[in-house]
Amino acid sequence: MVETTPLVQHFPYIGIFALLILGGIGLPFPEDATLLLSGILVAQEVIRPIPTILVVYSGLLLTDFFLYYVGEKYGRKVIEHKRFHRIISPENLLKIEEKFKRWGSWAIFFGRHVIGIRAQLFLVAGIMRISAIKFLMVDAISAFFISFRSLAPAEIL
What we know:
Structural class: mainly alpha
Number of strands: 0
Order of helices and strands: HHHHHHHHHH
Helix content: over 70%
Largest sheet: none
Radius of gyration: 17 Å
Strand content: under 5%
Number of helices: 10
């Protein structure tokens, strides 16, 4: 087993949750790296699988809904704000709106699994005023698969 610090041993679930939240609000903590870390910690028996799935799942849903909420609350003004302009440009907004018109909820479901478009999709879902319940249901189903994917390194190691 890999030796870990007492902080990681005592608070790993809070750390994983915090990394997901911080990455979701734009800090440089990629979601996929946090998911891989979770799997490695499970494989090294630092943390247990079931609590890890619950923490990852709730962290994913919370960060996704935050982006949706920002899009819903501020609408198209989001692309004018310098922080969110880096996430989505006016050109990308139009492209993603077309994808939503064409694919509907499937855009959220499959887009969640595509690195680089995830945050844009969730912002646009809010901007387009897609029902919050519909968004959460589709995202919850899609995130369910991601939560289990976080344990994939446990099988590899």
